Amino acid sequence: MSILSAAILLFLVMDPMGNIPIFVSTLKNTPTARHRRIIRRELLIALFVLVLFMFAGQYIMQLLQISEIPLSISGGIILFIIAIRMIFPNRMGDKQYPESEAEPLIVPLAIPLIAGPSAMASVMLLMSQDASRWMDWLIALILAWTLSGIILLISAPLSKLLGARGLIALERLMGMILTTVAVQMILTGIHKFLQG
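and the corresponding structure tokens:
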């Protein structure tokens, strides 16, 4: 997998377009002047968590005696479920979090919206495929995180510009792409299992 392919995968998994309505809703009770500062802080926390899972994930897998094959198949299944939820949000249930008057910290913006279970599994899977390419995977993560961050920093004006229908259409398009990636991950895991 190339750096660009890995970056696209991570970007799709982070799902910034699908997270825009939740970010806007979560921040509506905080002063507008603080929105960008809060989003930047949450993005940095999410990046720290993902980098931690990228480098510590292989040791967690060794401790739990999990090999690359089941991680690839289970990661593909998780991504497939997420992709289906992106394509059919009304049928599968939208991501909703209780509103709070307090300023959000870590939950739900950093975790699980940006650094969710699927993003954590994805960075672990990349490292399990070839740990010697850690610099490539780190660059891919930073690229995906940067693009997601830019989108989330302009979430309020973007939400007004695209409207609810526009955001749904973009998220469904991203979901369709992610479905293909998920199926490929599952098939790769099955192929390696049959070879072994």
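(Above: one complete record from the training split.) The chain has nine helices and no strands.
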